[in-house]
Amino acid sequence: MHKKPLTPRQKDVFDFLNLFFKHHQYMPTIKEIMAGKIEDKQIIDSRAQGPIGNTLKRIEARGWIERAEAGRARAIRVL
């Protein structure tokens, strides 16, 4: 599958997913993505769950991640 380019916001979230996984060895929940912190360092700024959920859907549609089961925490897989 060919990956479509990410917008700057999508890239920030995608990079956060990878960095979070690197530090914790598991994927973040939506709440952890919303908080945008790793080891108390602010990585991304998001104050609402809806925009993060929509951003993840768009990243998935562009072929960068896969979300195994809707509503299941930590069910994100980087492709």
Keywords:
4 strands, globular, alpha+beta, two-stranded antiparallel sheet, 13% strand, Arc Repressor Mutant, subunit A, 79 residues
Please tell me about this protein's structure.
- The chain has 79 residues and is α+β, with helices and mostly antiparallel strands.
- The chain contains three helices and four strands, in the order ααββαββ.
- β1 and β2 form a beta hairpin.
- α1 crosses α3.
- The termini are close together.
- 15% of the residues are buried.
- The model has no long low-confidence stretch (mean pLDDT 88).
Give a nutshell description of this structure.
The mean pLDDT is 88.
End-to-end C-alpha gap: 10 Å
Helix content: 40-55%
Q: How many β-strands, per DSSP?
A: 4
The strand line-up of the biggest sheet is: 1-2
Note poorly predicted spans: none
Helices, strands, pairings?
Layout: H1 8-24, H2 30-35, E1 37-38, E2 41-42, H3 49-61, E3 65-67, E4 76-78
Helix pairs in contact: 1-3
